[in-house]
């Protein structure tokens, strides 16, 4: 276990040619102070959480100093935003500080989000506001707690610096994002659309070597990589659909090459199941509505395929892309089978699940509360009424619950084992927008205890904690009126 200054940097991205990025140091935040420090992520990096000095964290990850070995840079990428290609993107408010290699040889990117202006800031101020930084910190831990691939954060640093958002002055913050990958689909699109095909190949070689070394010896390593990206992305969105998560800004520059949930903005977890829910006030067409996500990920993968055309035969790319619907359907089935406590696979499972989703839609059911309650289903009247009360019309539950009870008779595992398995995948706590709003409201008043409480709950969302029972209940009335935008 080591201290902050002893982290071992070995920066591979900065070895790539100069036009892949701009070398730039973060702009220090005014009067930085530590709000959050993630002992789990510290452990991943090999840091001793007890030995890390909060002042040092605020200093380095508030942008004021550079850790020995860091080589900060802003990456160039482009991407399709709301279906339209934008050639002017890149790290406009984030800086890759460098790559840390831990004692197991794992390579982790440290990316400071909110680090000030870069060559790619366009009209922006290069900052992230406290509100959006808290939301990203909370949801990345929540995703991790649910077992869904995600970037995480080592620290959240606050500041007295203020910037304008949506007509109001707001405090800035900086989040130290930690992930093995900051390569987006948009990195490939940049080199493709600017016709730099040699650089495109260099990027692909870099990605195969770093992220998919198992394919280096394949006959077609780029195709194998693409196939893996399709698989991972389909699996990721299947989990989002399975847990009611709306990303809300699925532009290709927000798509991670390794299939992690990435670049959080005005996301939501569904309170009530509404397939058409749009979680971004500015998304007038509903392009990124909840139900659209599987199709949008397919579309985003086709953008990546397009960008890979100089490296891979078109027919091969299309063949892989065409596998997506089947991979997605299989992955979705797996997620729901687990949530339902079904260990064996039977043909009627698809129908059981689609009937349940129709019921959720018609009855505006809170799916996460439903699955948690379903773990207690044992055929008794009380277990059925605990579920039925989550429906607008409780009597409508019967046909489905009968179907489910019948299906359970084919399972081999005993009821207590099934219950334990279901409690391990069906969270008691889900990050609802009202909870994030409460944490932000308290933080704005200088009280960060709600942020910390939520982090503690969401890291282990399956563990019941009696002090926080209210978070397992129906969200308050005002939760429905929360308005989120790209600055969220
Ligand atoms: P996002 O909406 O966070 O996915 O960002 C889309 C693009 O806008 C990226 O190129 C960002 O770097 C850039 N961007 C977002 N916010 C800012 C900001 N405050 N200052 C400069 N660039 C920004
Ligand atoms: Mg982004």
Largest sheet: 6 strands, antiparallel
Structural class: alpha+beta
Helix content estimate? 25-40%
The fraction of residues in strands falls at 5-15%
Quick one: how many beta strands?
A: 12
Secondary-structure element pattern, one letter each: EEHHEEEEEEHEEHHHEEHHHHHHHHHH
Q: Provide the low-confidence segments as ranges.
A: none
What's the gyration radius in Å? 23 Å
Total tally of structural domains: 4
Protein described:
- This protein has 4 domains: 4-182, no CATH class; 186-333, no CATH class; 345-410, no CATH class; 433-481, no CATH class.
- The protein has 16 helices and 12 strands.
- The chain has helices at 39-45, 54-60, 130-146, 185-193, 197-211, 221-243, 293-307, 314-322, 324-340, 349-363, 367-374, 381-388, 398-408, 415-425, 433-444, 449-459, and strands at residues 21-23, 33-37, 73-75, 79-81, 84-86, 94-101, 107-113, 128-129, 152-165, 168-179, 245-246, 268-269.
- Strands 2, 6, 7, 8, 9 and 10 form a 6-stranded antiparallel β-sheet that branches. It has a two-stranded antiparallel ribbon with strand order 1-3.
- Helix 3 packs parallel to helix 16 (449-459), helix 4 (185-193) runs antiparallel to helix 5 and helix 15 (433-444) packs antiparallel against helix 16 (449-459).
- Adenosine monophosphate binds next to loops.
């Amino acid at each position: 276990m080591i201290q902050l200054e002893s982290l071992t940097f070995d920066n591979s991205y900065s070895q790539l040619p100069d036009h892949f990025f701009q070398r730039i140091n973060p702009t220090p935040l005014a009067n930085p102070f530590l709000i959050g420090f993630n002992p789990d992520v510290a452990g991943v990096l090999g840091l001793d959480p007890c030995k890390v000095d909060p002042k040092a964290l605020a200093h380095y990850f508030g942008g004021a100093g550079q850790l020995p070995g860091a080589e900060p840079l802003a990456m160039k990428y482009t991407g399709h935003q709301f279906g339209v290609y934008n050639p002017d993107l890149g790290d406009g408010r984030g800086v890759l500080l460098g790559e840390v290699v831990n004692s197991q040889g794992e390579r982790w990117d440290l990316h400071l989000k909110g680090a000030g202006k870069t060559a790619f800031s366009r009209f922006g101020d290069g900052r992230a506001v406290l509100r959006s930084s808290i939301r990203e910190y909370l949801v990345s831990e929540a995703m991790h707690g649910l077992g869904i691939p995600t970037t995480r954060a080592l620290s959240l640093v606050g500041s007295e610096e203020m910037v304008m958002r949506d007509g109001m002055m707001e405090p800035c913050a900086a989040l130290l994002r930690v992930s093995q990958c900051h390569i987006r689909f948009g990195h490939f699109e940049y080199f493709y659309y600017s016709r730099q095909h040699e650089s495109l190949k260099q990027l692909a070689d870099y990605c195969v070597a770093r992220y998919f070394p198992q394919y280096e010896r394949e006959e077609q390593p780029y195709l194998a990589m693409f196939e893996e990206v399709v698989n991972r992305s389909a699996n990721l969105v299947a989990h989002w659909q399975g847990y009611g998560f709306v990303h809300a800004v699925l532009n290709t520059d927000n798509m991670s090459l390794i299939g992690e949930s990435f670049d959080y903005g005005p996301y939501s977890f569904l309170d009530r199941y509404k397939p058409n829910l749009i979680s971004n006030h500015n998304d007038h067409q509903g392009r990124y509505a909840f139900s659209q996500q599987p199709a949008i990920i397919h579309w985003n993968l086709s953008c990546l395929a397009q960008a890979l055309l100089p490296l891979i035969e078109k027919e091969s790319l299309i063949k892989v892309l065409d596998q997506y619907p089947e991979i997605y359907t299989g992955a979705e089935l797996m997620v729901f089978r687990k949530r339902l406590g079904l260990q064996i696979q039977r043909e009627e499972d698809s129908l059981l699940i689609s009937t349940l989703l129709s019921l959720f839609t018609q009855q505006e059911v809170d799916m996460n509360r439903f699955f948690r309650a379903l773990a207690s289903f044992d055929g008794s009247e009380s277990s059925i009424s605990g579920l039925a009360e989550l429906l607008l019309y409780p009597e409508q539950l019967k046909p489905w619950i009968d179907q489910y009870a019948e299906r359970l008779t084919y399972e081999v595992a005993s009821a207590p084992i099934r219950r334990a398995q279901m409690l391990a995948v069906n969270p008691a706590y889900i990050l609802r927008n009202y909870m994030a709003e409460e944490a932000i409201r308290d933080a704005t008043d200088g009280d960060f205890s709600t942020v910390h409480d939520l982090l503690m709950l969401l890291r282990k969302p399956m563990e019941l904690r009696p002090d926080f029972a209210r978070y397992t209940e129906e969200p308050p009335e005002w939760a429905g009126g929360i308005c989120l935008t790209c600055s969220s």
